[in-house]
Amino acid sequence: MERLKLSKIKANGKNPRLIKDENFDKLVKSLLVFPRMLELRPIVIDNENVVLGGNMRLRALKRIAKLSTEEITKIVKTDQRLHDEEIAAIVDYWNTWKRAKDAPAVKADDLT
Questions:
Q1: Would the pLDDT of 112 be above 70?
Q2: What angle do CA 80, 18, 53 make, to 5 degrees?
Q3: How far apart are CA 16 and CA 29, in angstroms?
Q4: How far, in Å, CA of 67 to CA of 20, rounded?
Q5: Could you tell me how many helices (H) and strands (E) the chain has, helices first?
Q6: Which residue from 4, 62, 3 is spatially nearest to 28, judged by alpha carbons?
Q7: 59: region left, alpha or beta (phi > 0 left; psi from -120 to 50 alpha)
Q8: Distance between CA atoms of 110 and 108, rounded to whole angstroms?
């Protein structure tokens, strides 16, 4: 596994899967609240960095990259399970992440 800048990862235009509106917002929130999931389910890419698995996660990360600190905080606060300290830690994580704007990726050069 390696970490690649989002700008180096290419969405797969042939991917038929698309998440719209509410479900996409749920994915964004899920990644915001539990960023470790990206390490557990990295984006799968080919030799040319085209996504073979994880197109919607890539799209969600690109959305997160555009969110302000206030927007991130507002979304994370909607998760009733989190305490103030956890919310602050999550917001700090994403503010730090925004400097790199990268994602864990696994090359699967034997897949198409």
A1: no
A2: 90
A3: 23
A4: 18
A5: 5, 4
A6: 62
A7: alpha
A8: 5
Exposure b/e, 28-56, CB count within 10 A at least 16 = b: bbebbbeeeebeeebbebbeeebbbbbbb
Structure tokens at 21: 């509106």
- For β-strands 102-107 and 2-5, DSSP reports them as antiparallel
The alpha-helical segments, DSSP class H, found in the chain are 21-33, 37-40, 55-66, 69-77, 84-100
| Confidence (pLDDT) at 110 | 79
Residue 100 neighbours by CB under 8 Å, 6+ apart = 3, 5
C-alpha to C-alpha distance for 68 and 13, rounded to whole angstroms:
28
pTM for this structure?
0.92
17-71 pLDDT, tens digit each: 788 889 999 999 999 999 999 999 999 999 999 999 999 999 999 999 999 999 9
